[in-house]
Design goal:
Layout lengths: L26 H24 L3 H4 L21 E4 L9 H5 L6 E4 L7 E2 H4 L3 H7 L12 H7 L5 E2 L2 E4 L2 E4 L1 E3 L5 E3 L4 E3 L5 E3 L8 H77 L10 H4 L12 H45 L6 H24 L3 E7 L20 H5 L4 E8 L3 H4 L1 H35 L12 H12 L1 H27 L6 H35 L3 H13 L2 H34 L17 H39 L12 H6 L11
Catalytic activity: ethanolamine(out) + n H(+)(in) = ethanolamine(in) + n H(+)(out); choline(out) + n H(+)(in) = choline(in) + n H(+)(out)
GO molecular function: antiporter activity
Family: Belongs to the CTL (choline transporter-like) family.
């Protein structure tokens, strides 16, 4: 008993439920959490003062200026034009994230074929051509203009997409690529080229264009079917609520039906294997042993060997016997699990507001995610523009940092005459920029910590509400008027430190897993098998550790909600309490998992089938009612995913209720003995299953 952490002195017979007169726990961790939150706010303010989301919103030209930015000379030029889009097909684009050609902001994209050589001889054409050239063309020849990189050698009909000008490519029925209705074009250097040569430069853009068209159709489908989708989600919510209510009456039937079905399926498997074993008796070569046959890549060969079916029969028979023995010896524990599940349904009936608490958790998580995302965007856009040397021929200064203001007179330009100083990316060399990666790491870590804190708050709040139900001797008279709000207030007022402590431990493990994934991603190209094996082992270990910590935290929060002790003490008490009842824990966990899985499957299946027949128009009664859609799978998939999330939200509350009542039930057994001074507070159904009863008070 001492080894399992049971201390009889700590059990107070006067305990009647969650302690209301409690004190603050884990104060040091609470102070640390508040300081880190203040630091998180400071990082956000710093990022917002230094960052510039316009770097994400607006395209940037070769000078690092924003196209279309209000209040600047480029306000009327919102589009980015590439001098030579074919250079965007270079592999360096994937490495530098920048196309190695001059880019400038323009008012509109070119809508006609034109070369500089031909436009220069026509006053009107050259006036149009200047819209896509830099300043300073006066008095220069075509050769001088091209050598100085002031104009593109050619213009091709283009269309704006994501504020960038891409060639207006099209495809005829025969598969021929055209641009501006022409299959060939003059590249401005005297060469006639095929339009398909432009494809490589805009390959990614055409994929995005097609995706954009699909997205527009999907958006139109949502505008046509959104109210029907809401109706489907409301139906899913009602079915989820109905299922939880019915568990009070049908939990036992569902569990025993499931067990009987498993036994029957295994029995049928034994029968089928026996028939196959007998039928192969007269077949030639079927008596060969598996040892003599050896390993075969064609696994169907083994199905013609009698020994294979004999092995199947033995394995299934052993499984059948084990299940039957477990039923015989664990029958009472299964009955306890069923009774607790029914009791959880009854508890939710008294605390109906708990079903909608996940909406509050979702709202808080949305705030945390939004703050993290906005801060990450501002941090990533708080760099300064960096310019690099881009060239077509060999050059020692290629990809080196340069200054565009004096590049034309620099030694780099003198040594590499055809080079250009173009905007490459955003970076910086200041102290702030040097520690920018650290701020990003802090942003990610605090995101995990805050998200886990919100989840922990939800678990402790629900645990306190359901614990007040269990320990109420007269229900609902001995319960708080508003159990959820009462429990939420206690959790925030007294146990913020405990919540922060548990979520901090979990966040550290999660950030380590993120770092391991990052290292694994960086080492993908290496062939060191030892390193790969070590990383795989570490990832597996920390995955298991995260699952274990989540289990410990969940039960620790329940004990904190009941007794008001600090996190470590509560975690220890919960762990040893569960270890003293390992078999009950395993049985209840599997029975609950099965019922909730069955509920999710039922809800998603029913709503999904209804949505399929409605939106696909397969049922004549709905032909005139269903909306006309481009893709009928869009609302169907939305309803199915939404139904699953709704069912998961309802059942997460139910699972928390079961876990809380289970710990309260175990505490009740160890704390009380059924006497008048220490009566059991469990339901009559649980008392009947345990063959226990409360003794009446002695007559005076």
């Amino acid at each position: 008993s001492a080894l399992l952490g049971k201390d009889p002195k700590k059990y107070d017979p006067t305990f009647k439920g969650p302690i209301y007169n409690r004190g603050c726990t884990d104060i040091v961790c609470c102070i640390l959490f508040i300081i880190c939150i203040l630091g998180y706010v400071a990082v956000g303010i710093l990022a917002w003062s230094q960052g510039d989301p316009r770097k994400v919103i607006y395209p940037t030209d070769s000078r690092g200026q924003f196209c279309g930015q209000a209040g600047t000379p480029l306000e009327t030029k919102p589009l980015l034009f590439y001098f030579n889009i074919m250079k965007c097909a270079s592999p360096m684009v994937l490495l530098e994230f920048q196309c190695p050609t001059t880019q400038m902001c323009v008012e509109k994209c070119p809508d006609k074929f034109m070369t500089l050589l031909k436009a220069y001889t026509n006053k009107e054409d050259f006036k149009y051509y200047k819209n896509f050239c830099k300043e300073g063309l006066e008095g220069l020849t075509v050769t001088q203009i091209l050598s100085s990189g002031l104009c593109p050698a050619m213009l091709t009909p283009s269309k704006p997409f994501t504020r960038r000008c891409f060639p207006a490519l099209d495809q005829k029925k025969g598969g021929e690529i055209t641009v501006g209705n022409n299959s060939k074009f003059d590249d401005g250097e005297g060469n006639i080229r095929d339009a398909k040569d432009l494809v490589a430069g805009v390959k990614n853009a055409t994929v995005v264009i097609e995706a954009r068209q699909v997205a527009m159709k999907i958006f139109e489908d949502y505008t046509q079917s959104w109210y029907w989708i809401l109706i489907g989600l409301v139906i899913a919510m009602l079915i989820s609520l109905l299922f939880i209510i019915l568990l009070r009456f049908l939990a036992g039937i569902m569990v025993w039906v499931m067990i009987v079905m498993v036994i029957l399926v295994i029995g049928y498997g034994i029968f089928h294997c026996s028939m196959e074993y007998v039928s192969l008796k007269s077949e030639a070569g079927s008596n060969v042993t598996l040892k003599d046959l050896g390993f075969q890549t064609d696994f169907s060969v083994y199905l013609h060997i009698r020994q294979t079916w004999l092995a199947f029969i033995i394995i299934l028979a052993i499984v059948e016997v084990v299940i039957i023995l477990l039923l015989i010896f664990l029958r009472n524990r299964i009955l306890i699990a069923i009774a607790l599940i029914k009791e959880a349904s009854r508890a939710i009936g008294y605390v109906m507001s708990a079903l909608f608490y996940p909406l509050f958790t979702f709202a808080l998580l949305s705030i945390v995610i939004a703050y993290w995302a906005v801060t990450a965007v501002f941090l990533s856009t708080s760099n300064q523009p960096i310019y690099k040397v881009f060239n077509e021929t060999a050059c020692d200064h290629s990809r080196k940092i340069c200054e565009p203001a004096n590049f034309s007179t620099s030694s780099m330009k003198a040594e590499c005459p055809d080079s250009k100083c173009l905007f490459a990316f955003y970076g910086g060399e200041t102290v702030y920029h040097k520690y920018l990666i650290g701020l990003q790491f802090y942003n990610v870590f605090l995101f995990f910590w805050c998200a886990n804190f919100v989840t922990a708050l939800g678990q402790m709040t629900l645990a306190g509400a359901f614990a007040s139900y269990y320990w109420a001797f007269v229900k609902p008279d001995d319960m708080p008027a508003f159990p959820i709000f009462s429990s939420l207030g206690r959790s925030l007022r007294y146990h913020t430190g405990s919540l922060a402590f548990g979520s901090l431990i979990l966040s550290i493990i999660q950030i380590i897993r993120v770092l391991l994934e990052y290292i694994d991603h960086k080492l993908q190209g290496t062939q060191n098998k030892c390193t790969k094996f070590l990383l795989c082992c570490l990832k597996c270990c920390f995955w298991c550790l995260e699952k274990f910590i989540k289990f410990i935290n969940r039960n620790a929060y329940i004990m904190v909600a009941i007794y008001g002790k600090n996190f470590c003490t509560s975690a220890k008490d919960a762990f040893f309490l569960l270890m003293r009842n390992m078999i009950r824990v395993a049985v209840l966990d599997k029975v609950t998992d099965f019922l909730l899985f069955l509920g999710k499957l039922l809800i998603v299946g029913l709503v999904g089938i209804f949505a399929f027949f409605f939106f696909s128009g397969r049922v004549k009664a709905f032909e005139n009612t269903a909306p006309n859609l481009h893709y009928y799978w869009v609302p169907i998939l939305t309803v199915v995913v939404g139904s699953y999330l709704i069912a998961h939200g309802f059942f997460s509350v139910y699972a928390m209720c079961v876990d809380t009542l289970f710990l309260c039930f175990l505490e009740d057994l160890e704390r009380n003995d059924g006497s008048a001074e220490r009566p059991y507070l469990m339901s009559d159904r649980l008392l009947k299953v345990l063959n226990k009863k409360n003794k009446p008070e002695p007559a005076e």
